[in-house]
Design brief:
The structure holds two protein chains of two kinds. Chain A is α/β, with parallel strands linked by helices. In chain A, 48% of the residues lie in helices and 12% in strands. In chain A, a hairpin with a 4-residue loop joins strand 3 (101-107) and strand 4 (112-118). In chain A, helix 4 runs antiparallel to helix 5 (147-163). The radius of gyration of chain A is 27 Å and the shape is elongated. Chain B has eight helices and no strands. The chains are: A alpha/beta, B mainly alpha. The interface between A and B is large, with 38 and 36 residues.
Chain lengths: 262, 201
Amino acid sequence: MFFQFRTAWGRAILGVLLCVAAFAAYALTFPELSGRVVDDAGILDPSTKAALERKLAEFETKTTGQLVVVTLKSLQGTSIEDYGYQLGRHWQIGQKEKNTGALLIVAPNERKVRIEVGYGFEGTLTDAVSRLIIENSIIPRFRANDFAGGVGRGVDDIIQAVSVDSEEWKARAKQRPDDQPGLVDVLALVFFLFIFFMIMRSVAGQSRGYAQTGAGSRRGARGPIFIPIPGSWGSWGSSWSGGGGFSGGGGSFGGGGASGSW
Amino acid sequence: MSYTLIPRRTRILLTTMLAGLLLSGCGVNNIPTYDESAKARWSDVQNQYQRRADLIPNLVETVKGYAAQEREVLTQVTEARAKASQIKVDASTVTDPAKFKEYQDAQSALTGALGRLLVTVERYPDLKSNQNFLALQSQLEGTENRISVARRDYIESVRAYNTELKTFPGLVWASTLYRSYKPMETFTVAEDLAKPPTVKF
C-alpha cells in the first residue's frame, strides 16, 4: 500500500519534472522589438539600417502592412521555421484582424534566412514567391558576404510582391475566427446594461419615495456602484503605444513563407 | 441604499442576475469556450492537411514527366493520398480515439511517402531545376510547416480544454451541466517532432 502510494507520488513528481523540462525546451527568448530593423546579430551598418527603417516605415504608411527585418545571434537550438512564427506571434507584427505582417529573418551564425509570412499576406507573398526571393535575391549576396545588399534587395522584392495587388489581399485577408467578438460578449454587454438600468431604476424609485415622504432628495448621497467587469474587457485600451515608437499591430502567423541557407 | 427598500420583484431579479454573474465568475462558460476554440484549431489542422492533399496530384504529374521510372514511390504517394482522403472526418473524430488514430496514421503514412519521393527526386537534376517543380516543392514545404504549426496550436488548445474538464471548478460543471462534453484526442508527439521533408540545393 505504502509502496504504491510512493510510486504514484514518484510518477507525479517525474511528470512534473518532465513538464518543466518540456517547458524549458520550448521557452525561447526573443529580442526586443526596438524598431522596424532589429539587428540583434550586428551585421548591418547604421546607414543601411536607417535606409531600411525609412523604406519599411514608408511601406507601412502606404499599405498599412507591417514589415520587419530581424537578424538573430542564435536560433537557440530550434529550426528557423519554428523560431520564425513564434517571433512573429510574440511581436504581433501586422494589423490586427487583417494579419498583414511579414518578417525577414537572418540567422548569420546558422547561415539561415527565412521570410515569415502573416496570414493576411499568404495570398500574395506565397511560399513559392518567398522561395524565389530567397534563392535569387538574397542568398547569392549573402554568399558574397554582402548582408546589406541581400537584405536590401530582399526587402525591395517583398514590398514589390505584396504591393502588386494590395487591393486584392485587402479583400481576402483572412480573419481568424476567435478574434471576432462572439455572441457571448454581446450578451454579456446587454446583460450588464440591463443590470445597470435596473439598479439605476431602483435607486431612482427609492429617491422618489423619499421625496414623497418629505425626506428630501438623496440622489447626491448615493454611494458608488461597483460593477464587475469580466477579464476579456480589461484588454480594451491596452494596445495604445507610445508616440514615435514602433510596435506590432496585433497580427498573427501560421507558418507561411519559405526558408533557405547559404 | 438598503436592500429591503427595493421592491420584491426587482429584488428577485437582481438576485438571479447576481447569481448568474457569480456563476460566470466560477468559469461556467469555460468548457464551451475552450471546446469551440479547440474545434476551430482542429479545422485549421484539417485545412492544412487538405491543402497538402490538393498539391499532390500536380506534384506527382511533374515528377512523372522527368522520372517516370520511379513508379513505386509515385504509386505509394498516390495511394497514401487516396487512403488519407477516404477517411471521413466529422465532429466525433476528435473525441473518438480509434477514429482519431486512423486519421493520424493515414496522414503520417502520407508524410512518409512524400518524404521518400522528395529524397528520390534528388537524383534528377533536370527535375530539380524545373521552375514548376521548385514552386510545388516550396509550397509543399510551406504546407508541411503550416501543418506542424496548426498541429501544435491544436495540441495546446486541447490541453487547455482537457485540463478544464479535469480540474476544479471545470470538473463540477463537466459532471453537471456539460455531461456531453468529452475529452479530446490529441496528436502524439512523435510525428510532430519529425522535420518536414526538406531538400537541400
